[in-house]
Design a protein that fits this description.
Elements (H helix, E strand, L loop, with lengths): L1 H21 L11 H11 L8 H22 L3 H17 L10 H7 L5 H24 L7 H8 L1
């Protein structure tokens, strides 16, 4: 029960800060729905490979790129939506950066007619914030999350 509270409180803090930053300027988005799902991984199943910082950061970036790229070539259609999600999955698997919440980014990019700026803000900046928050929060509570030993294991 204690771990449930710690996980929920961490998600509350991180998303609240992103939402607060988002409230200053509606044109400068800090928060997208997939970040809520990312919080489930970094707080509730923080030892999962899917919650690893490289998966969060690069999974979100690669998926956002897939959506922006497909939208720029094909526009918005049922085919482009399916193709962009499929491309995101292929690229995340090829780069070993699978992060399931990021699978929504291509849909957001296409339905929102997003350009290259979307990849940087909110995606890369927001994902970086989540990673830094998760490292600090989990380490401060002595919960096993990312270590440089994990990075060395992943490289092998």
């Amino acid at each position: 029960m204690k771990n449930n509270f710690i996980s929920a409180f961490g998600a509350f803090l991180c998303i609240s800060v992103l939402a607060y930053l988002n409230s200053f300027d509606e044109s400068n988005l800090w928060l997208i729905p997939p970040f809520g799902a990312s919080m489930v991984l970094v707080m509730a199943v923080h030892e999962s490979p899917l919650a690893h910082p490289k998966n969060i950061l690069f999974g979100h970036i690669i998926s956002a790129f897939s959506g922006v790229f497909v939208f720029s070539v094909l526009g918005s259609s049922f085919i482009s939506l399916g193709l962009a999600v499929g491309l995101a999955i292929f690229l995340m698997m090829a780069t070993k950066t699978v992060h399931p919440p990021a699978g929504a980014n291509p849909i957001i990019a296409i339905l929102g007619a997003k350009g290259m700026g979307f990849i940087l803000m909110p995606v890369a900046v927001g994902a970086s914030f989540i990673v830094l928050f998760a490292i600090i929060y989990n380490k401060s509570l002595k919960r096993n999350y990312f270590t440089f030993k994990d990075l060395k294991k992943a490289a092998k």
